[in-house]
Specification:
The complex is a heterodimer of chains A (323) and B (328). Chain A has helices at residues 3-28, 43-51, 67-72, 76-83, 117-131, 143-146, 150-160, 180-183, 208-223, 253-260, 264-275, 280-302, 311-314; strands at residues 58-60, 137-141, 165-171, 174-175, 178-179, 200-204, 229-234. With 323 residues, chain A is an alpha/beta fold. Chain B has two domains: 2-183, Rossmann fold (3-Layer(aba) Sandwich); 196-324, Rossmann fold (3-Layer(aba) Sandwich). Chain B is built from twelve helices and 14 strands. In chain B, strands 3-2-4-5-7-6-12 form a seven-stranded mixed β-sheet, sandwiched between helices. A five-stranded mixed β-sheet of chain B has the order 9-11-10-13-14, with helices on both faces. A two-stranded antiparallel sheet of chain B has the order 1-8. The chains are: A alpha/beta (323), B alpha/beta (328). At the A-B interface, α5 and α7 of A face α3, α4 and α5 of B.
């Protein structure tokens, strides 16, 4: 990979981490942010997976962590306003962070109930195929979503119709409190796709270069008309499920500490230093820049008001002529 | 004017729209080679490429979800669900995704989706192949629901639905597929959200839709011979509902009977009755009467099924009762 791209992934991982740290501080200080779910520890997977996409590809992001959205280029000001459920975000205060929409970057929204995204991804891919646009749909999902039967129905559609979809499983070890291994037949989420005869690969989800490569391969295959692939990234949710959750009910401190030592941000930073791509000067200027951007996003969101009451009824139906 | 069956009218609407707009596709179980369980899509595969006339696995959740995704990405899918009863399998996709997507994404995207499905009894098919599920969806803001009773409306409402830009549930009645009527060859629209006065009358108002509209018209004929002139309204759209149209007639006659094929409790008739009471109470001369299916599943046995379906006699009797009602 080019140095520029290696650094870009690092930038985005740092931006994601710092953004989420600020969110956590805001929540701790009593800020109303009901759907904040940190993705600490998973940034390599979300960021690198999205970095592999083309400009016009479609993205279905997950609600855990903001790496997908930040990597896709959704301005963090808008994300912070969405987290506040205020106007001024991507959905004008109507969908919180659960329904970020940014059509200019292929984000057509997000389903709120787990499992629906697979067939929605299939449909977007069907549109791409029928229009001949060569756009691929990248659909990230976690343990919970992948447990729905909809996964199989949709994967069947994708396979028999050779739809351009890349499913990216975020195996972060847990579905809230349930261990991945207790709700899947094997420790590989990718095994769930084996019966479809499609590529199902598992990579180290804490290694952005490995993720980028695997997702790129799958995207190329999809763009070439060969149909869907499944890429699983193994990672670990260092963050608790949601703020103030007591995670000692289902995991030990030692386990979390062990994974903190494998924090993808630290590992990647070290790697880039070793490769001579990153130096302390770049790092400190990046941190300063990010700190500034994140602070600005808080100021921006603090200044955002509640949605106009007209929004209560205004957008329930499309009222134009659909030609 | 040229006559078509209700089935042919639906098919013609699909064919004309698909010919005019290559972003329209149809998908569903056995709709291609087989031409649909009720023969509605017969011939469309020959007319259009198989890419746009897509046979699907029996997987309603994925069928509807895929259509939503395609709609979001700029297509205008028409889905056929083999029986409206099977739509419950895709309840999350219909009620949570299609209905709410635009709203909770701040109006930034739209879901132009038509979901066609047969409804109603057809004789001995039992509780999972004969329901009239419109009331379930009436309770879901973000959806639209139409239920044509004539070939003319079948074509015009479907064309409106395709151009609506919102998820529209298009419920076609099994017993109406062979009904014939005047249908213009050209493309035309019947607006969604407008009812139609089929028979004018001054003694009572019968509000109905889909197959029950036909029984209501029969009842009105009989009543006329008795000297009672019932106004018969075809509701046509369940959501949005033409409240003003219903109120206008209710204010005129003061006596209202609602006739529906689905279970009475929590039904569309209950909603109609409630809003007429709320908005035209001072004009009412009698309590509003609801004629519908009892609160039981549709029985398999045809004799029992027939007993439960609102009959012309029951409608006639209900109108007589509301007309005979006197305030003390």
């Amino acid at each position: 990979m080019e140095k520029r791209n290696l650094l870009r992934m690092y930038d985005l991982m740092v931006r994601t981490r710092r953004f989420e740290e600020r969110c956590q501080q805001l929540v701790d200080s009593g800020k109303f942010m009901p759907h904040f779910h940190a993705g600490t520890g998973q940034e390599a997977l979300s960021v690198a997976g999205v970095c592999a996409l083309h400009e016009d590809d479609y993205l279905l992001y997950t609600h855990r962590g903001y790496g997908h959205l930040i990597a896709r280029g959704v301005p963090i000001n808008l994300l912070m306003a969405d987290l506040y459920s205020k106007s001024g975000g991507t959905n004008n205060g109507m969908g919180s962070i659960m329904h970020v929409v940014y059509p200019e970057k292929g984000i057509l929204g997000r389903n709120g109930v787990f499992g629906a995204r697979f067939s929605i991804a299939a449909g977007m891919a069907l549109a791409s195929k029928l229009k001949g646009t060569r756009q691929v749909v990248a659909a990230f999902y976690g343990e919970a979503e992948g447990n729905r039967g909809t996964f199989f129905e949709a994967l069947n559609f994708m396979t028999i119709w050779k739809l351009p979809v890349v499913l990216i499983a975020e195996n972060n070890g847990f579905s809230i409190s349930a261990r991945q291994t207790s709700i899947y037949p094997s420790e590989r989420m990718a095994d769930m796709g084996m019966g479809f005869g499609i590529p199902c690969v598992t990579v180290d989800g804490n290694d952005p270069i490995a993720v980028f490569q695997a997702v790129s391969d799958a995207l190329n295959r999809a763009r070439g008309g060969e149909g869907p692939s499944l890429v699983e990234g193994k990672t670990y949710r260092i963050a608790v499920h949601r703020p103030h959750d007591d995670d000692t009910k289902y995991r030990s401190r030692e386990e979390v500490e062990q994974w903190r030592r494998r924090d993808p941000l630290l590992l990647y930073k070290q790697k880039l230093y070793d490769m001579g791509v990153l130096d302390s000067e770049y790092e400190s200027s990046l941190e300063r820049r990010v700190e500034e951007e994140v602070s600005k996003s808080v100021k921006y969101a603090d200044a955002c008001g509640d949605p106009d009451p007209r929004m209560l009824f205004g957008n329930l139906y499309y009222s134009g002529e659909c030609v | 004017m040229r006559e078509l069956t209700y089935r042919e009218a639906i098919r013609e609407a699909i064919g004309q729209e698909m010919a005019a707009d290559e972003n329209i596709l149809i998908m569903g179980e056995d709709i291609g080679v087989y031409g649909g369980m009720y023969g509605v899509t017969q011939g469309l595969l020959a007319q259009f490429k198989k890419e746009r006339v897509r046979d699907t696995p029996v997987a309603e959740t994925a069928i509807v979800g895929t259509a939503i995704g395609a709609a979001l990405a700029g297509m205008k899918p028409i889905v056929e669900i083999m029986s409206s009863d099977f739509m419950f399998v895709a309840a999350n996709e219909i009620n949570n995704d299609a209905a709410k997507w635009r709203y909770q994404h701040g109006g930034k995207v739209k879901v132009p989706l038509v979901l066609r499905a047969p409804v109603g009894t057809s004789g001995g098919t039992g509780p999972e192949h004969a329901q009239s599920p419109e009331a379930y969806y009436l309770h879901t803001p973000g959806l639209k629901i139409v239920m044509p009773s004539t070939p003319y409306d079948a074509k015009g409402l479907l064309i409106s639905a395709i151009h609506d830009g919102n998820p529209v549930l298009y419920f076609e009645h099994r017993r109406l597929y062979d009904v014939t009527g005047d249908v213009p060859e050209e493309v035309y629209k019947v607006p969604i959200g407008l009812c139609k006065v089929i028979e004018e009358g001054s003694d009572a108002t019968i509000i109905s839709w889909s197959w029950m509209l036909h029984r209501s018209l029969e009842a009105a004929d009989r009543l006329r011979k008795e000297g009672l002139n019932a106004e018969v309204i075809d509701l046509r759209s369940i959501l949005p509902m033409d409240r003003e149209g219903c109120l206008k007639s209710a204010r005129k006659t003061g006596r209202v009977v609602v006739v529906e094929e689905s279970n009475v409790t929590g039904g569309v008739g209950a909603e109609i009755s409630a809003f007429i009471c709320e908005n035209a109470f001072e004009h009412l001369e009698a309590p509003i009467s609801r004629v519908g299916f009892p609160d039981i599943p549709v029985p398999f046995n045809p004799a029992l099924e027939n007993w439960a379906i609102p009959s012309v006699e029951r409608i006639v009797e209900s109108v007589r009762t509301v007309c005979a009602f006197q305030r003390h």
